[in-house]
Structure formats: C-alpha cells, structure tokens
Write a structure and sequence with these properties.
heterodimer; A: mainly alpha; 8 helices; 89% helix; B: alpha/beta; Transcription Regulator spoIIAA; 5-stranded mixed beta sheet; 3 helices; globular
Chain lengths: 403, 101
Amino acid sequence: MDVMTNISRLLRDNAPPLLYTLLIAGLWFYDFHTLTFVVAVFFVWLGTIQKRLHREKSCSRQDSDEKEGLLSSIKTQHKCYEGVASRISHENTAISEEVERISKMVAEATTELAESFSLMNRYAGEQKSLVSGMLGDSQTDNGDSASINDFIKDTEDMMNYFIDTIVNTSKESVRLVYKLDDLSEKIVSIEVLLKDLKFISDQTNLLALNASIEAARAGEHGRGFAVVADEVRNLSMSSTQFSDQIHDVVADAIDGIKDARTVIDGIASRDMRFVIDAKTKNTEISNIICKLQKQADTNMQEISLIADNLDNSVNVAIRSLQFGDIVTQLAGHVSQRSNNITHIANDITETINSQSQASNELEIVASINSVNQVCNRSVEYLKGINDSPVAQDKMESGEIDLF
Amino acid sequence: MSISITKDSANDEVCITIQGRFDFSMNSDFRKILSDPDCLGDKYTIDMGAVEDLDSSALGMLLLLREKAGGDNANINITRCRPDIIEMLKMANFQTMFNIA
C-alpha cells in the first residue's frame, strides 16, 4: 500500500513534466530532428520550472498564513502576560500594604502589652516580696507566730504559777493553823497552871487568916505575928489579883488566836472552780489564737505560691511578646518576597513589550528566547533568596527580655 | 462532811474516806491523820468518791499529808474522784505527785 501511495503521489506531483517528457519522447521517436529534441528539452525544463514555481507559490502562501497566525497568537499571549503581570503587581502592592498594616498593629499591640506586663511583673514582684517578708517574719524566732506561741506559753506558765502559789499558800496556811492550834493548847495549859497558882494563893490567904486568928488569941505576945499574918494575906490577895490579870491576858490571847485562825481560814480557802474557769478560758483562747495563726501561716504560704505562679506566668507572657519581633521580621520577609515577584513581573512585562514589535521568524524566536531567559533568570533569582529569615519559631527558646 | 480513817495493819495501809465538801472545816479532822501515830502507814488511799467539791485548803491539806508521808517518796492513791474533781487536781499538777484514779 505504501508503495502504491508513493507512486500515485509521484504521478500527481510530476504530471505536467511527465506529460511533456512523453510528448517529446514521442516526437523524438517520430522525427529525430535535433531541434525537436531541444524544444522537447525546453518544454521539459519549462514544465519543471512551472511545477516548481507553482509549488513555491503554494508554499509561500501557506507560510505567510501560518506566520500571521503565529504573530497574532504571540501578541495575544503578550497581552495575557501583560494582564497577568499587571494583576500580580496590583496584588503585590495590596499584600505589601496589608503586611505593613499587620506589622504596625503588631508593633503597637506588643508595645502596649510589654508595658502592661512590665507593670504586672513589678506588682507581682512587690507582692511576692511583701508576702516573703511576712512569711519570713512569722517563721523567725522574733516573728509574730513565735511571739504568739511565747505569749501563750507565758500565759500558761503564769497561770500555773498562780495556781501553785494558791495551793502552796493554802498548804502553809493550814500548817500555820496547826501551829496556832498547838499554841492555843499551850496557852490553855497556862490557864491550868494559873488555876493551881490561884489555889495556892487561896490556901495562903486562908493560912494567913488562921495565923491572924491565932495571933489575936495570943494577945499582946502575938501582936507582931498578927502584922506578919496580915502581910502574908495581903501578898496572897495580890497574887490572886495578879493571877486574874494573867487569866484575862491568856483569854485575850486565845481570842486573838481564834481571830487569826478565821483570817487564815479566809486565806487558805480559795474557790478552785474560779481558777479552773479562768484556766479553761485561757486554754480556749490560746487554742483559738494558735488555730488562727496556723491558718494565717497556711494562707500566707498559699499566697506566696500564687505570687510565684503569677511571677512565672508574667515572665512567660513577657518572653512570648518576642512574637512581635518575629512577626515583624516575617512580615518584612513577606514584603520582600512580594517585591521580588513584582520585580520579576515588571521584568517579564518589559521584555515582552520590547519584543512585541517582532515581525519575522527570527525576531519572534529572539523574543521567545528573551522571555525564556528572563523566566530562567527569575527562577534562579528566587532560588537564591533565603527561605528562613527567622530561625526562631518557638517563644520558649528565646531569652527573657524585660524591655 | 466527815473524814473516817481505817488502818490495815497487815499491809501498813491507811484508808481515808472523805465525804461532802472537802474544805478548811475539815482541817481539825485531817490534823488527826497527820499527828496521830496510829494513822501513819507506808501507803495511803484516799477515797474521794463522796467528795462533792473542794477548795484550795483541801489541796493544801493533801500536800501536807504528802510531806508527812515522805514527800517525793510518798505513796498516796486518790481514788474514785468525780471528773470535775480530777480536773481540779490535775490543774494543780497533782497527777505528778499523787496516783489519781
């Protein structure tokens, strides 16, 4: 089939020359005249030329049509490129503006937050130092807690001393009463002795009386003896009087001892229930104070813990504020990338514009090559840009900056 | 309101039973325990089950008995006390000087 197709195409393309050649060959066979041969050759050449001209004309028309189409397509493509580049420029301008706004807002917000956190940090520090001071005070020997415990212990000691004193006073009072009782007994024995003395006096008096009687009976001889008897009687009466005086004094002494006993009774007999109530109340108050103090200590420790946590949180917040710097750097980089894209778009647009006047194949090829070169250059340029302008991507890894 | 004394000679133990309000009015009866040779013993038991109340002079008398019985070496049991009486004795630190039950 291929062979047949080729033969038929050969026949179609070379039909006039073939016809002329056959015609000349016939004539040459018919008449061997040289001129005829020349004419024949001329016709053959003519046919060949005609064929070639026809072919070239046809080719030329076809090429022209294709070129026109290509130029038109390229121009359309240029317009498309221009539209895209223009749009890219426009979008990039918008991106730059928005990124700038973001940067500005973040910068303002970070500044305000930094000031706010800085104040919080200061207040937290002050609160912590106050709480630490209070805790420190209450935990030292001279602190409130120790003072309260000392006070409670002192009060208890004082109470015990008071009770001991009362009990010992009672003990000594009872002992004193026993001594007074002993004394009373001795005084009572004096009174017994006085009774004996009075008996002697009475007997002496009686004896003196008898002596006086006997002296009177003796008459003149007994007169001197009567004087002596009177004197003895007088002495006896004085002795009785003296004994009565002693008896009165002893009675007074016994009364005095009784009074003293009553006074000592009052001293020795103290109501212990009153003391118990006082001690119980003191213990209750001490317990309440201890409980309150313990509660206060616990609360202070909790407050201290909260203050520490607050301090830590504020420090974390301040450290986290570095996001402002990072965001600003990232925004700058986004701007830079956007500008690069604008630059490339402008470059491509300029190249396309400068080559849009191409009218023949060579210029068109040059134009396309230029565009390709710009594209390649742009890709290489973009590859050269650092992809990670901000190495730090976590806030924790940064140092604390207290602004 | 009285004090009764019994002596268990076999154990050389003196039992003292006190009734009513134990106060200064009992000091004469109590003196008998301190001064009577028959009331001396190695061991003393004071039954205070019937004691309704006591004052500081009672505590003083008990301390005098302790002195008499040998001070720190005394062996004195105070028994059957009411809770409030025990409270009073403890308040005066008597639990360190007497056996209180």
